[in-house]
Amino acid sequence: QFQSLQLEREMCLASNCTLARVNLSLRPRLEDGKASLAIKYQELREIREACWDKQQRLEAYLENWSPQSALGQLQAKLDASEAESEAQIEQFLAQDLPLGSFLESFCQSRTRSHICRTQLEKLQELLQKDQVGRDPAGPAGDPGALASPARSRLAP
């Protein structure tokens, strides 16, 4: 019985020695795998940071170029053009501006105002249609119910 235990012990030692050699032979592969994994994690961090930066830029871009932002910019442009027309009229009435140059600059200013007003109205209509399309419970048959406060300023 002692001899069988001794034999079993030697077999276990030989098996352990063989397993140890196999494990040691696999160590370079393990180290390469660890290094490769570290590189992949670094690439993942860089990609995550790049995605985060792009997402921030996209959010800023969408905020600057949203339909509501465009509406505000058009309204500001229209207000500036209207103010310019009023200033030209005042200059002409004060006889600070000759008739020829007044007519030319006033026509250009009014043309810009008209274009801005038309673009603003069209954009408002599109936004209203989009809003009605998304909100089927909106007011039916009441076209003035969706008009924005900016539109009421546009009335002549």
UniProtKB/TrEMBL annotation:
<feature type="compositionally biased region" description="Low complexity">
    <location>
        <begin position="134"/>
        <end position="150"/>
    </location>
</feature>
<dbReference type="GO" id="GO:0006623">
    <property type="term" value="P:protein targeting to vacuole"/>
</dbReference>
<comment type="function">
    <text>Component of the ESCRT-I complex, a regulator of vesicular trafficking process. Required for the sorting of endocytic ubiquitinated cargos into multivesicular bodies. May be involved in cell growth and differentiation.</text>
</comment>
<dbReference type="Pfam" id="PF07200">
    <property type="entry name" value="Mod_r"/>
</dbReference>
<keyword id="KW-0967">Endosome</keyword>
<dbReference type="InterPro" id="IPR029012">
    <property type="entry name" value="Helix_hairpin_bin_sf"/>
</dbReference>
<keyword id="KW-0813">Transport</keyword>
<feature type="region of interest" description="Disordered">
    <location>
        <begin position="127"/>
        <end position="156"/>
    </location>
</feature>
<feature type="domain" description="VPS37 C-terminal">
    <location>
        <begin position="48"/>
        <end position="137"/>
    </location>
</feature>
<dbReference type="GO" id="GO:0006612">
    <property type="term" value="P:protein targeting to membrane"/>
</dbReference>
<dbReference type="GO" id="GO:0000813">
    <property type="term" value="C:ESCRT I complex"/>
</dbReference>
<keyword id="KW-0653">Protein transport</keyword>
<dbReference type="InterPro" id="IPR009851">
    <property type="entry name" value="Mod_r"/>
</dbReference>
<dbReference type="GO" id="GO:0043162">
    <property type="term" value="P:ubiquitin-dependent protein catabolic process via the multivesicular body sorting pathway"/>
</dbReference>
<dbReference type="GO" id="GO:0031902">
    <property type="term" value="C:late endosome membrane"/>
</dbReference>
<protein>
    <submittedName>
        <fullName>Vacuolar protein sorting-associated protein 37D</fullName>
    </submittedName>
</protein>
<comment type="similarity">
    <text>Belongs to the VPS37 family.</text>
</comment>
